[in-house]
Amino acid sequence: MVPAAARRAARPASRREPEGTLNALWGHGGAYQTWTEYLTRWAEEGGAGTAAAAARLPRLRPEDYHHDTWVRLVNQLTGAVGDRLQAWADSLTAALAEAAADEFAAGRALVQSRTGLDTVRALASHPSLPEDLRTQLRTLVDGQIENLQRQLEDQLTRAVRGGADPTWAEERRRTLRDNPLTTVAGATGAAGSGKAAPPAPGGGWSYDPATPARRRVITD
Hints:
Blueprint: H1 4-10, H2 18-26, H3 30-45, H4 51-55, H5 67-98, H6 103-124, H7 131-161, H8 166-178
Helix pairs in contact: 3-5, 5-6, 5-7, 6-7, 6-8, 7-8
């Protein structure tokens, strides 16, 4: 039999990730724990409930963490952003449904919804995140914004095919394009100008975009 002392000595030493040292020094999970706790709350409450905490978020550097730990943190970031975007999209869809017969109310809902998008982009652009991660998150957010804009217009096309009034559909399409989600601060489009890029001639407009809008919501 192998002596007990030898068996104990043969046990491999447990691996400790870099943040383990930080735990011993700070008594908690350091920047990692601060960020994960913030993201959990932010995903539920959004920017309004977490503004003060956002200003205190510590800087994150991938070299300070084990690779797997960093991947988990990035996944939490993208998951929180996805949750907020989904909640925002659900709220906007419900507001547009309530404004089915009122283009002014629909335009107001579109404009007001940009506040939620600004909140998401603020997290994606947080200065405590590495630049390459900020770029990836902003690209993710902008892509989702542009995708929802397309989905809203595609729904109108399907609605007409299903028997909806074409005149109503064109009025709602104009409202969507007069108040595009892609004008949210910093969103892509028109070479990064923050405005939605119009299609090239013949690229799908169902009306002349140069004609005056029948109804437009002023954001100032």
